[in-house]
Design a protein that fits this description.
Blueprint (H helix, E strand, L loop, with lengths): L13 E5 L2 E8 L2 E8 L5 H4 L1 H4 L8 E7 L1 E6 L4 E4 L4 E4 L3 E6 L4 E5 L3
Antiparallel strand pairs: 1-2, 2-3, 3-9, 4-7, 4-9, 5-6, 5-8
């Protein structure tokens, strides 16, 4: 009989720190699950663009917001805001930033 697998993001397999944030991840059954924390003042174009070396974020994100607020601007100028309880997909070609004075925290499943 097959058994399930359980891990905690409070004891991540891996933690990647970046300026004004971090991404903690676990891998379960070959699937990676991340908890991303972006501190107030964080913005992809300011803090990760120099590392990525691309005009905008080329990640394809499937996310669920835990707390805080996250702003997204697509390369075509369209904007969206995500808050607690929101789930969505952000396709490649965007900038993102923390809105307000509280960290934005979300769960992400890369695909």
């Amino acid at each position: 009989m097959a058994t399930g697998e359980k891990k905690s993001l409070n004891q991540p397999d891996e933690t990647k720190k970046f300026e004004k944030g971090k991404a903690e991840s676990v891998t379960i059954g070959g699937f990676k699950i991340l908890r991303v924390t972006a501190e107030p003042g964080w913005q992809w174009s300011k803090h990760l663009k120099p590392v990525a070396g691309t005009k905008s974020c080329q990640g394809d994100h499937l996310l669920y917001m835990i707390s805080g607020r996250l702003g997204i601007r697509m390369d075509d100028g369209k904007e969206q805001e995500f808050g607690p309880g929101d789930a969505g997909r952000v396709p490649p070609g965007h900038d993102g930033w923390t809105i307000g004075d509280k960290p934005a925290v979300w769960i992400e499943m890369p695909h």
